[in-house]
Structures are given as structure tokens and as C-alpha cells.
Amino acid sequence: MDKSGRGALLRTGVKDVEGSPRPVIALETTARTSARMSRQARRDTRPELEIRRRIHRLGYRYRVNHPLPGLPRRRADLTFTAKRVVVFVDGCFWHACPEHATSPQNNGAWWAEKLRLNVERDRETDGVLRSAGWTVIRIWEHEDPDSAVHRVSEILTAAT
User: Fold this and answer.
1) Does 109 or 131 have the greater pLDDT score?
2) Mean pLDDT: which of 70-74, 92-96, 98-102 is highest?
3) Would you state the CATH architecture of domain 41-158?
4) Buried b (16+ CB within 10 A) or exposed e, 43-70
5) Looking at residues 62-83, what average pLDDT do you find?
């Protein structure tokens, strides 16, 4: 950490969804930002828990954070294995919600690329699962939990 309170430049050499190396972009971050980002929940978010509780209350049973078939490094928020239905509860920021997406000002180029690749990966995941015969349900974190659960329930009932 330097005198300004900023961390060292971080480099990310992650591969894109096709497995090709992405260009490395220097990322400057403060200790405060780093601490805040490390506390971001990857699973068990409030919207996800609310939807899980309501679906469970209806008598449905599911797997949580289950690896996806053919995509071992990716996981669904809820997986109904017998009915071949997966549910993702997507955060508006991380998955670039058309209604609520925001673009951070600091490290703007890095974030724009990161969020673009998140959306690209979501579409790729949807395509792989659908071609394997799975039904994919995506719920935005801002959606009304009752209507989201109703949508999931209708699909599960039809999948019998």
C-alpha cells in the first residue's frame, strides 16, 4: 500500500469464455474498496434466500450452489435435478440489469469489460444448459419474490 492509501496495481490474466487469454488491464484499488468487494456475497444473498424460502415452503426440494452439467466451474443458485430446471438469481450490478445497471467510475474500462464478460458467460451458460435439455430461469434481484416464485412453480409443475 502506498502513501495515498491505494493498493498496488493488480493484473488479471483471466481467460475469456472461449478459453482465450484476455488482455491484461491494470487495476488500481484502495484498501477500502478492496475490503468492501471482499465482503460481497457470492451466494446466499438476501433475494436468493427469500426465493429459496418461498419455494421450499411450497414443498419443492432443490440443490443449492450445485455444479452445472458440462460446466464444472459454474454453479446454479437452485437446481431441480429430477426436473432438469436451474434457477439463477442475478444481481443487478454483476449481471448488468437493463433497468438498474451502473458503471463504476474508478477503473471504468476494467469494470466495463468484467461486466460484459459476465453477461456473455450467462448467455453461454444458458445456451449450453438449454442444448442439454435443461430449463433455465433467470430472476433479477429486484423482481417481486412472489411473482418470481410463481414463475418457477409454473415451470416446475409443467416439467412433471
Assistant:
1) 131
2) 70-74
3) 3-Layer(aba) Sandwich (3.40)
4) eeeebbebbbebbeeeebebeeeeebbe
5) 94
Cα(73)–Cα(71) distance, rounded to whole angstroms?
6
DSSP structure string for 113-129: HHHHHHHHHHHHHHHHH
CB-CB contact of 28 with 107 (8 Å) = yes
pTM above 0.90, yes or no: no
Cell of 66: 450445485
CATH 3.40.960.10 placement within the chain: 41-158
> What is the DSSP code string of 129-155?
HHHTT-EEEEEETTS-HHHHHHHHHHH
Cα 30 from Cα 94, distance rounded (Å): 20
91: cell is 444481481
What does the pLDDT read at residue 20?
62
Q: How confident is the model at residue 4 (pLDDT cuts 50, 70, 90)?
A: very low
* Alpha carbons 89 and 17: distance in angstroms, whole number: 21
Using CA atoms, how far apart are residues 121 and 83, in angstroms rounded to an integer?
A: 23
